[in-house]
Amino acid sequence: MRVALFVTCLADLMRPGVAFAALRLLEHGGCTVEVPDTQTCCGQPAYNSGDRATAMALAKKVIGEFEGFDYVVAPSGSCGGMIRAHYPELFRDDPALQKRAEALAARTYELTDFLVNILKLDGVPGDFAGTVTYHDSCSGLRELGVKAQPRALLAKLPGVKLVEMDEAETCCGFGGTFSLKFGEVSTQLADNKCGNACATGADAIVGGDLGCLLNIEGRLRRRGDMKTKVLHIAEVLAGRSD
Amino acid sequence: MELRSNEFKPRAAANLLDEKLQRGLGLIKVKAVVNRASAVAEFGDFESLREVGKDIRDRALADLDLYLERFEREATARGAVVHWAENASEACRIIVQIARDNGVKKAAKSKSMVSEEIGLNDALIEAGVEVIETDLGEYILQINDAEPPSHIVMPVIHKTAEDVADLFHEKHGTPRKTDPAALTREAREILRPQFLSADMGISGANFIVAETGSTLIVTNEGNGRLCTTLPRLHVALTGIEKVVQTLEDASVLLRLLPRSATGQAITNYVSVHTGPKRLEESDGPQQFHIVLVDNGRSKLLAGDMREMLRCIRCGACMNHCPVYQAVGGHAYGWVYPGPMGNILTPSYVGLENAVALPNAATMCNQCGVVCPVKIPLPDLMRKLREEQMARGLKPWAERLGLALWGWAAQQPALYALGTRIAVRVMKWMGGSEKLIHRLPFVSGWTDGRDFPAPEGQTFRELCRARRTNELPPAAGGREPGGGRDARPESQPQNSAAKVTIDAHIAAHPTACSRSATGSRKNASAPAPRRSPARWRSCPPCRRCRAPWRATWSRTTCPPAASSGPACASSTGSAPASAWKTARRAATTSSASPAVSAPSPKPAR
Ligand code: SF4
Fold first, then answer.
1. Which end of chain B is more exposed for a tag (fewer CB within 10 A), N or C?
2. Residue B407 sits in which domain range?
3. How near does any CA of chain B get to the CA of A105, in Å?
4. Is A171 in Cβ contact with B362 (below 8 Å)?
């Protein structure tokens, strides 16, 4: 099974460890993983900012880079959702490209969704021990139906205890460029999220999207909490959770 | 209603700091969100009901003209008078004229958002008509110097019982009381005589029914029924999009509306008004006027925002919107707040007059999944953003930033260089704390949050570095117990780079659960003994099936060398130079990302 890893720009820039962890998990599941070298961004920031032309150019690039694989997996519901839920619409006026976009969309998965529903992993290599609480990122949850998958995988780690926070499905306030344009509102939402997460007393806040995680971590640290870890689910499952 | 939508940002920021307001807004989650969730769960297959509701509204909109004409015919045949208003001022003029013609001195109103939209109260007051709001929430706002509502269903959700207690004490001159029941009783005592003395009752309409020419309202306080039956005139005011084909259709929407709005299975009152009082009837108005307002709706019908006309004004989108929950309805600066307002306000008053609104959402789609008629609210907001982009209504800095970033992201080499520099600078800025407290151009982030610093190297860079600079530690040697035959495996010949987790271990020697020495068998230091259990959990090399090797393998077998390494041991005793040649061949081809396509397997 040839699987292409869509690294995502945030993992590429901010947390390479997340991409390595995703790689490890996919290989653990027996995939031949490839990382197309010229990949940059799925185009979502442009798409959500109303810059359709740039979004289309980047989507075309992604389609060209990734359409030859059996599957495309992204350690992010947001980028995965962009490809799965929005690429076909993006090319509504270009039937040929739309067909290619649809084909790619049908093979694109968010990491935990892929591990659970395609690879049907029996176990995961991580050895994290502690209490965690899981933040459901909006795109993964509402565009791709990622809810039970990360929880099922966490349950495979004997040392992990999952404590659900209140409003786990409520947006953390990141929203891409929203976090910059409406800083005060975004911060407030991040603060609500931190409050709910910390109320569980968990050692780590875990999520599937780096955007949300950086937002939550940023607020958490500004609130003075230097202790609670903020981890990507791939890091927990693959064993990078120092 | 005064339009202040372009002040969204400062007003939102101020509202976040308003503790009293925040206390009031807290109730939305407790009341509306929780109640809707349990009503939906109790109903069962609410999803199918939403689907049916969507179809009903789409059907009505598809032949809107026909249904409106039918409505007019049926209503007229039953003695009502139907008026058509193209815009707000025409609607006001029509109602003022009805009042004048009939010597109306006092009008009792039940809640109508369209009346807020067209500014009816001001028009009537100017014409010398006393207007009494009889919905408790609207009444509270009216006596508070005609404060605008902050929610379309719960207009005073921004006020606490304490606020109302102070207000009643001040305006009514009665002893201050905080018990909500007592406050309601006080308001009722003041309002009852008003219904009896009003000449005109004004209501909205949740739906208008084409087959019977009826208007329909749902209320909980019963004031709507009093307004529409006691005064001698009844004026029902609503938008042209509210038409449905049949009473049956209306009954489906009645299952959706209260559940979505307040979590009720049905409201306390559902009133269907069909014509004025007939001779044989004892109650009802002598005249029944229906004012149908366009005010921009037909423009929507022909455009990208058409789906917004399905809206049945339940307020679920705002109840569930994290932004609305945080800043309240007044920040939106016009009649319709929250996600539906982010679309309706710019659509009705002009995109340039509500520039912030389509952007004032995180696109979390919480609104879209609760909307009873399945309006894809985030998609519509995105379309408005596209229109803003096309019309140059976005700030230049945003446009420039997007253009630069978008261009760079299409130049992989340049992008790689730029990001390599950026992550180094930012790592340095993060210092030992690994947190950036201030960042130029993005104070929106750093004013309230730290920015976690990057690790200092990009993933692609780490990949590339290992691919081009490192030989696998075991490339020339043999693993203890190695020397197995490389398993023939058909490998696609492409250039994409592949790294194994060992690369990650090399990058984070202490971070991984297994240490580098633990997995690198032929490192010069003697490898510590592995526990068998641990060993088993290691993923096998995909070629030789041996557990993890100290390897840095190419993604694929280089085309030139079938003996190219998958892991160190699977190459057997291939001399290092052969490996190098193979690697060079592959590295060269890796400049192009072309990938030979296997037959696609649609996943689901
Ligand atoms: S947009 Fe949907 S959720 Fe919002 S008020 Fe209208 S019908 Fe209700």
1. C
2. 397-452
3. 9
4. yes
Domain assignment present for B214:
yes
Confidence check: pLDDT of B541 > 80: no
Rounded alpha-carbon distances, angstroms, from residue B20 to B157, B162, B533 = 11, 9, 59
The answer to whether residue B331 is domain-embedded is no
**Does some domain include residue B308?**
no
Residues of A in contact with B13 (CB under 8 A): 184-185
H or E element that contains B208: strand B207-209
pLDDT band at B594 (very low <50, low <70, confident <90, very high): very low
d(CA A16, nearest CA chain B) in Å: 5
Please tell me the distance between residue B317's alpha carbon and the centre of ligand 1 in angstroms. Answer: 5
**Is B448–A184 a contact, with Cβ atoms under 8 angstroms apart?**
yes
Q: Which residue has the higher pLDDT, B227 or B566?
A: B227
Residue B82 shares a structural domain with residue B211: yes
B10: tokens are 């400062």
Q: Please give the full DSSP string across A98-150, using - where no structure is assigned.
A: HHHHHHHHHHEEEHHHIIIIIS--S-------EEEEEE--HIIIIIH--SHHH
β B287-293/A160-162 pair status = unpaired
Q: Are B360 and A187 in contact (CB under 8 A)?
A: no
Token code pair at residue B508: 């984070």
Candidates A31, A212, A19, A65; CA nearest to B539 is A31
Cβ <8 Å between A240 and B512: yes
Nearby residues of B454 by Cβ (< 8 Å), 6 or more positions away: A13, A14, A15, B422, B423, B426, B427, B430
Q: Distance from the CA of B308 to the center of ligand 1, in angstroms?
A: 8
* Shared domain check, B79 and B219: yes
Find the B340 Cα to ligand 1 centroid distance in Å.
6
Examine residue B558 and state whether it is found in any structural domain, yes or no: yes
Q: How many domains does chain B have?
A: 3
CA B215 to chain A, closest CA, distance in angstroms equals 36
CB-defined site of ligand 1, < 6 Å: B 260, 311-317, 340, 371-373, 375
Tokens 């925002």, residue located: B305
| CATH level 2 (architecture), domain A130-238 | 3-Layer(aba) Sandwich (3.40)
CB contact under 8 A, B359 and A178: yes
Joined tokens for residue B569? 């041991």
pLDDT at A179 over 80: yes
Task: Look at residue B503 and tell me whether its pLDDT is greater than 90.
Answer: no
Residues B409, B558, single domain; the answer is no
| Residues B364, A34: C-beta atoms closer than 8 Å | no
Atom of ligand 1 nearest to the CA of B318: 4
pLDDT at residue B303, rounded to an integer: 93
**Contact flag A174-B362 (C-beta cutoff 8 Å):** yes
Residue A221 pLDDT greater than 70, yes or no: yes
* Minimal CA separation from B600 to chain A, in Å: 6
- Domain termination residue (choose one: B429, B452, B475): B452
pLDDT digits (tens, 9 = 90+) for B184-209: 999 999 999 999 999 999 999 999 99
Average per-residue pLDDT in chain B? 82
| pLDDT > 90 fraction of chain B, expressed in percent and rounded | 72
Among B306, B340, B374, which residue has the most ligand 1 atoms within 8 Å of its CB, making it the best to mutate? Answer: B340
CA–CA dist B476, A194 (Å, integer): 51
CATH of the domain at B105: 3.40.50.10420
The Cα angle at residue A69 between residues A65 and A74, in degrees rounded to 5: 75
Nearest CA to ligand 1 atom 7: B311
- B85-115: per-residue pLDDT in tens? 999 999 999 999 999 999 999 999 999 999 9
Of A61, A184, A191, the CB nearest to B410: A61
Does the structure show a pLDDT above 80 at B30?
yes
To test the pocket of ligand 1, the residue of B206, B244, B313 to mutate (highest count of ligand atoms within 8 Å of its CB) is B313
Range with the poorest average pLDDT among A71-85, B23-37, B476-490: B476-490
A21-61 confidence digits (pLDDT tens): 999 999 999 999 999 989 999 999 999 999 999 999 999 99
Shared-domain flag, residues B412 and B531: no
Question: Residue A102: is its pLDDT beyond 60?
Answer: yes
More confident residue, B499 or B224: B224
pLDDT of residue B441: 83
